Amino acid sequence: MFCPECGTKLDKEALFCPECGTKVTPLQAVETAANGTPCVDNAETVSDEPDIVARGFILTNIQSLSRRLHVRKEMVQDVFNGYIRGMRQWGVRYVLLDASDYTYRVRGFLGGRKHVSLGSADTWADYAAILKDAHDAEVRSGEPESDYLFIIGGDDDVPMPCLPHFFDNDNDRDFDTDLLYAYPYGDEMAAKLLSQELFSYDALFYVGRLPVADDGSFSDLTDYLSRVLEQGAAVPVDTAYSQCDPHWKQVTLSITEDLNRAGLYPDYGDNLPAEIIAQKRVFLTPHVALDSQTGKQNPHAFNEQANYYFFNMHGSNAMHSEGFFGEGLHGEGWAEGMSPLLIARAERPNIFFTQACYGGRFIRYPKRKSTLLSALTGKTLTYVGSS
Q1: Which residues have a Cβ under 8 Å from the Cβ of 174 and sit 6 or more positions away?
Q2: What are the residue ranges spanned by the domains of the chain?
Q3: CA angle, corner 233, sides to 353 and 54, nearest 5?
Q4: Cβ distance 63 to 120 under 8 Å?
Q5: Cα–Cα distances in Å, from 248 out to 47, 176, 245, 253, 265?
Q6: CA triplet 386, 350, 210: central angle to 5 degrees?
């Protein structure tokens, strides 16, 4: 298959051209857009669209993204509009909020509307003010309120708030969190989070982010959004894979018991020793470790066909310690049992959950040094981890 606009050869499952951004998906939603229906910010409904089951905002910075990905702003805009129309076919209504070109919807005291073009010098609170304005406009108009916030871009595009750590810790003097975007009431919310007063306020959104790496490409963005449109409203889960540090074996078995009861773990038989696998479902590191030469596990345990991954292991913020680690119970020392390279080998759309410290690190890390970025440029659709 080839792009009808620029002739680039495309994968058969591609929904956007990675070179020029042209929509090539067969989905009705994007076909409609390509045939002349305007792709507007709020992706207005048409008569044959399904009922809306979820509403949300996409917060991004198109100017920043286009500059970092070396494409025209119009290409990024077209991809977002195509994605919005595609999600509308699944009953999800998104409104695009471009912080690089945003006109406030609620009029000011003198009746005018403020316009902003945010960039690297602006704070998270400036971006949150856009969210509050869009929310207030919905409330004033009587529209159903948007509950979901999808941030698209890295920390350079839409800043992730960075706060001093709760505890005096030489290793962790601060922490990053998008939680403040759920409470877009002003920059004072940062101090209220530290005092926990924040939680007396109403959270306006469930927040998620699609980071774009410093060494990311336009195809990383289009490929991920294409996979979401292709997958639809949910990620089916029928096979789980779990791995942990043996010190956390019991709590990991407890956490994964629901997965076990649902029959999501393959039958590994009775031949694996207890130091390698716990109760036939949770693999243990350091006895399951990565080979330094091949990058593969020895013994091989990782299931490339799983679509739900759970890791309860150690992580690090050191640049060259990108994997997850386990420590032996009897002086065996530490070993790396999971790496970005390994999760990139997953073959099915999946959900990835890690409790490792820095398991979701991405700010100022290249893709190969971040399990989060490697997973999202692979087959992972949903990633839960700590930055």
Answers
A1: 162, 163, 164, 165
A2: 28-231, 240-384
A3: 100
A4: no
A5: 53, 25, 6, 9, 19
A6: 50
C-alpha to C-alpha distance for 292 and 112, rounded to whole angstroms? 62
pTM (two decimals) = 0.86
Q: What are phi and psi of 249, to 5 degrees?
A: -60, -50
d(CA 243, CA 343): 13
In 71-147, where does DSSP find H-type helix? 73-88, 124-141
Q: Are 363 and 354 spatial neighbours (Cβ–Cβ below 8 Å)?
A: no
CA dist 347 and 379 (Å) reads 7
Q: CA–CA separation, 66 vs 377, rounded Å? A: 18
203: buried, middle or exposed (CB in 10 Å: 19+, 13-18, 0-12)? Answer: middle
d(CA 334, CA 351) in angstroms, rounded, equals: 27
Element (DSSP H or E) covering residue 44: none
Give the span between the Cα atoms of 296 and 31, in whole angstroms: 42
Model confidence pLDDT, tens digit, residues 193-247: 999 999 999 999 999 999 999 999 999 999 999 999 999 878 899 999 999 999 9
User: What's domain 28-231's architecture?
Assistant: 3-Layer(aba) Sandwich (3.40)
C-beta of residue 314 within 8 angstroms of C-beta of residue 356: yes
